[in-house]
Amino acid sequence: MRILPAVTLLAALCVAATAAQARPLESVRKEGTLRIATEGHYAPFNFFQGKQLTGFEVEIAELVAHKMGLQPQWKALGFDALLTGLQQDRWDVVIASHAITPERAKAVTFAAPHYCSGGTIVSLTPRLRSASDLKGKLIAVQTGTTYAAEVQRLPGVQAVKNFPTDADARSALVSKRVDAMVTDRFVAKELLRKSPAAGFHLGEMVTVERIAAAMALGNTGLADAWSQALQAVMADGSYAKVSQKYFQEDIRCPAAR
Ligand code: ARG
């Protein structure tokens, strides 16, 4: 093995230690494009229609970006990689149905919430309704979600099985490798609407969440500008239109009504 000269090693350590600086609002404005990252496997919030990224969050983010006078530039990648990419300045904003949690708020700066929802139990039987019905059961969740953490905390759950995407967790349910899954209530409702014959049953909500876009920790200028533009989009009727289109109701948080 070749031994690296101490200087090279030191230089490498320095590079690793200096995290890339997130672009502040001024530089984003100067350049004119807003780099937005999402997952693309979470219908109806963010998903692919063929090669086209679409969904409630994609449409809302585009409205917000245009209100800010910016051109949105999309990237889609694994849910788990989204928040860390902010610190590395790989994109300016993440919008992928992240709930505001105290833990995440230590790592990223959240904008104002763009919808309110919660994690709901989905199973193939009407018997699994409430959290206490999950005792002794195998529950599927998507890795890195609030549901993964919450279900882990429920007393008596036999095991929590993690899957890379929500769709993978659903496949495990359909093929009866698990007893139930926990996912967003609007994702679950859409599932029932799209596949009425599949035998899905919705149980109770196990979490209540405020969902928001995230920026790099401390990038408050950009987060505030986003929140202001979101508020304008909520006030001018365009938010309501997109919400009606996807959910047949307005899903903004009660505080934003
Ligand atoms: N709301 C949940 C959370 O905050 C799930 C988000 C999942 N998003 C996604 N694009 N798969 O963790």
The DSSP helix count reads 9
Count structural domains.
Answer: 2
> What's the CATH C level of the largest domain?
Alpha Beta
Profile the largest sheet. 5 strands, mixed
Which architecture of the largest domain per CATH? 3-Layer(aba) Sandwich
Mean pLDDT figure: 94
Uncertain segments: none
- Compute the separation of the termini in Å: 64 Å
CATH superfamily of the largest domain: Periplasmic binding protein-like II
- N-to-C SSE series? HHEEEEHEHEEEEHEHEHEEHH
Computed structural class:
alpha/beta
Secondary structure tally: strands: 13
Biggest sheet, spatial arrangement of strands:
10-9-11-8-12
State the shape.
Answer: globular
Q: Which small compounds were modeled alongside the protein?
A: arginine
Which range does the strand content fall in? 25-35%
Describe the structure.
This protein has 257 residues and is of the alpha/beta class. The protein has 2 domains: 6-115 and 211-252, Periplasmic binding protein-like II (D-Maltodextrin-Binding Protein, domain 2); 119-205, Periplasmic binding protein-like II (D-Maltodextrin-Binding Protein, domain 2). Helix content is 35%, strand content 26%. The chain is built from 9 helices and 13 strands. The strands form 4 sheets. It has a 5-stranded mixed beta sheet, with helices on both faces. A 3-stranded parallel beta sheet has the order 5-1-6. α5 (146-153) links the parallel β9 (138-142) and β10 (159-163). α3 packs across α8 and α3 (56-67) packs antiparallel against α9 (238-247). 40% of the residues are buried. The structure holds arginine. Arginine (ARG) binds at residues 39, 42, 46, 79, 96-99, 142, 145-146, 166, 184, 209.
